[in-house]
Amino acid sequence: MQALPWPRRRRILKPSHRRRKQSRRQGLRISRKAPAAKAGPQPFQASWQEASPDEKALFLESLGESSKVIREHWDKSTPEERKKILKANPLLSARPLKHHWVSATPEERVAFLEAHPKTLQKVKEAWESATPEQRKMLALEHPYFARKALYHVWMEATPQEKIAFLAAQPSLSAELKNRWTGCTAWQKQWYAKNYPGLECGKPWADTTTEERALFLEANPGIAEKVREAWQKAQPEVRATLVRKWQGWPLRAYNARLEKAGKPVVSAKTPAPTAKTPAPATTKKVTATTVKK
Questions:
Q1: Which structural domain, as residue segments, surrounds residue 197?
Q2: What percent of the chain has pLDDT above 90?
Q3: Are both 159 and 245 inside the same structural domain?
Q4: Could you read off the pLDDT of 77-88 as tens digits, one per residue?
């Protein structure tokens, strides 16, 4: 008669051990499902070629002499002359360009700078010779109020401006996202054929701003509603909505940069009058270590 195997004794865990084991298992499951997100590029870290228009325009503002040359040329030029200078950029040159330099967008400022090779070379050398920390320090010590107003029509807006304005329309933004996530196999083929570069198979969170703008264009029903909202809004209102977008490279400094465009009245420092002279101001940071 064959002997029966001895039953294995089941290990009885104490409640504390049991909780510890469950937490380890849950931790493993979470780590497999949700890997740590990669940190995006930090402002002022890239080379001049790879830097965004926002970074370049803000850095230009910190270089007094170079900034003055470009600003004066813009303000002295007529709208038609500005269009000719920006002819290398069809999107920007199509805009009215009747506003002063103070209302020029970062994209317009950088494009106008690039039309001045000598000044551009000085600014590029200053950028490359400075460390990322020096670039940041100089730029933030000379802030300007970017995107005060957007005077151009919807068709002349950049992909970033379009998606930023779309983000301010929650229902339309959600509708476009649902169109992307709900794409059928046939629709994916249609988008890929008629709008090269659109890959609807990947998650919405992994799409670039340019891809979202192209997908918006590929859905005219939604695009027309956004365009109508843009056209009805005043230039200052458009800019206010666009500035709220979380996709801008300098969004971490928005509060500081927007403050530069608003008059600040201090209760401690009285306004200068005939009897009370204005207090002298000193610059904390100068660009002595960077070529202008």
A1: 154-259
A2: 64
A3: yes
A4: 999 999 999 999
